[in-house]
Amino acid sequence: MANQDDLFKNIISHSKEYGFIFPSSEIYDGLSAVYDYGQYGAELKKNIREYWWKAMVQLNENIVGIDAAIFMHPTTWKASGHVDAFSDPLIDNKDSKKRYRADVLIEDAMTKFEDKINKEVEKAAKRFGETFDAAMYRTTNPRVMEYQKKIDDTNARFKTALENNDMDGLKQIIVDLEVVCPVSGSRNWTEVRQFNLMFSTQLGSVAEDSNTIYLRPETAQGIFVNFLNVQKTGRMKIPFGIAQTGKAFRNEIVARQFIFRMREFEQMEMQFFIRPGTENEWYEKWKATRMNWHKALGIPESKYRFHDHLKLAHYAKAACDIEFEFPFGFKELEGIHSRSDFDLKQHEQFSGKKLQYFDPELNESYVPFVIETSIGLDRMFLATMSYAYKEEKLEDGSERVVLNLPPFLAPIKAAILPLVNKDGLPEKAEEIINILKFEHIITSEEKDSIGKRYRRQDAIGTPYCITVDHQTLTDNTVTIRERDTMKQERVAIDQLSKIIGEKVSMNNVLRKL
After folding, report:
1. Domains (ranges, CATH) in the chain?
2. What global pTM score does this model have?
């Protein structure tokens, strides 16, 4: 596991060193769990957002996008349940004075049991060789069965405690699992208590309760309150979806793991409105559709898995996460939820306005059911970076750090490198930039040896380096070097636009969906 910890630390330092992510307000020693995206991070983030938006909105005639305000009428959050029930179970260690989420401590303890099982299976596999039956071993080996029983029993208690909001029950699980504080190493815990995650602020100049509003903790409610506006103005027929990307804010108890859990983050959400009774097929369809979107990036399937929710919201028909294997283990990347008609009915009740759809085929009005897909843009950024970051040893014994980003997501698509900073080569490089810059983000570099410049571009994930040399001035050809293979070939300048365009095209990926 240590090498995974090192990998994660290296990704964090690489992100800062190469202009992807900086701690917010760093000159003032930063702000806990808030980050700024640098020049390359902003481009990568934009490209991921665009990939989601095009796959969701552009490729589906029955899905449209909106951009709702961050501030909403405070009753919105009463209706959605966030004022009364948007909280996390909090526990403190009395010795270290560190604060933790009780549910995360329990989940981490369960992961340790799963790791123990996997180690037992790995050891047995080495011992028995090709004849080894892993599935049978898991169900017959006493030690593995004991660990599995511990997991199953704890999961059942955990689920019951979460569903009943039983804080004492959660504390007892932590005690029974003998969970220690990672900092102090002690088991000296406080009671578990609830902590509301919404940021509140005042609207206008009078500081009265009636003027308390909230920074939105999710983007979904902006979609629900605009359901009728969009349906009527867009003449939308069910089934149809409304998509949105934007900032959300949560006063996380334990914001940690770099940009995985932040207090200010960006979501990409789509609410799909359907006829009641069709929710099961649409839920399965959106699960498959969203997994295809992830797999089209070329990241191995083994890095993803579905995880059904232990605790279902009282209104939910079904809920699962697409989990990604980050350097710190499998964690939630995207949620797919079958939300019934809960949201629209709540807003009907609190607003006194009808939020119904007249279905001409059935000749009746009803409140639509909803399937939600919700993905964190920052988490998707981290997943993409985690997989792309490679430390390679080359044939000549040297090493390089390379970001094998999917070319269409790369911040810079090509770097134009004059071999020397004289003899008319920089001017020729400028000519090439002026040809390519209308289609792609292009950069140029003149400082250092060509080898060092290649390494720098590898480290920011640039798919192509184009070297301008003295031969370029005579025959209008350049050397183009491909990032992943490091292969070089001589091509005509007038071919560059076509070569790069084909390799970095988002459309080629979208066509696979």
Report:
1. 1-72+208-391 (3.30.930.10), 87-196 (3.30.40.230), 394-510 (3.40.50.800)
2. 0.83
